[in-house]
Amino acid sequence: MLSYLTRLTGRDREEFYDDHLAHFLTFNAGAANAGGFMAFQRYTSHMTGIASASADALAIGEWQLFLAGLIAIIAFVSGAAFSAILINWGRRKNLHSQFAVPLLLESLLLAVFGFLGDWMQQFHAFYFPATALLLCFIMGLQNAMITKMSGARIRTTHITGMVTDIGIEIGKSLYWNRDPAYSTEHHVRGDRKKIRLLMNFVALFFLGGLAGGIGYNWSGFIATLFLATLLFLLAIMPVLQDIIRSNR
């Protein structure tokens, strides 16, 4: 188990571990997204929706809503940028934890959100923007990490691209290769393994959303600590490796 956790978020990557890690992170994104909606009626991983809502707000002169959406997008971009900085710094230092550090930071931020969420609600003017910015930053942080780790093959915080790719592969699978002039090597074939993988991601995002919604309704912000613990366990082994190595 310890070896598996080390390889899951460690420096030396294989497609197998990228795919396994993406399963955990897709569930996490679905849960955090649903919890954010329960907390303040906004989805924080869905930049397409936020951008559309901002454009609509600007069109009807709702300047506050427009600025709120713009700041949310900036927070997501900032999270992605900070993740890239951490990863590139870790790569320059040749750290085992170059990909684990952004996850560990995400874990700590979710823990802060879980512990302080109820207390923050008393500050109405501060609560909603702070919560939205924190969750958007977290989603950007995670999405950039798995994007860089997998060479842009996988993203976990939204499913539009996943559903599109499923449709493409289904279309390729249904394509009739009837032209005898084409050799079999030029036949169009769907990637069934990719379809299964992407369908798993979509299902896990849905299940994460279900778990996040139920968890928030049942216990409030403290439910976020489950996600924080999950990410901490995923990230801690490569970090400990670097700590041990630095103390030798």
Order of helices and strands: HHHHHHHHH
- What proportion of the residues form beta strands (DSSP E)? under 5%
Q: Kindly state the percentage of residues in helix.
A: over 70%
Mean pLDDT: 85
Q: Can you offer a commentary on this structure?
A:
With 248 residues, the chain is mostly helical. It has one domain (2-246): Growth Hormone, Chain: A. It has helices at 2-9, 15-40, 47-59, 63-92, 100-120, 124-149, 160-174, 192-219, 224-246. Helix 2 (15-40) runs antiparallel to helix 6, helix 4 crosses helix 6 and helix 7 (160-174) packs antiparallel against helix 8. The longest helix is centred in the N-terminal third of the chain and has 30 residues, at 63-92. The radius of gyration is 20 Å and the shape is globular. The model has no long low-confidence stretch (mean pLDDT 85).
Would you kindly provide a brief summary of this structure?
This protein has 248 residues and is an all-alpha fold.
Topology:
Blueprint: H1 2-9, H2 15-40, H3 47-59, H4 63-92, H5 100-120, H6 124-149, H7 160-174, H8 192-219, H9 224-246
Helix pairs in contact: 1-9, 2-6, 2-8, 2-9, 3-4, 4-6, 5-6, 5-9, 7-8
Attribute tags:
about 250 residues, mainly alpha, Growth Hormone, Chain: A, 9 helices, about 0% strand, globular
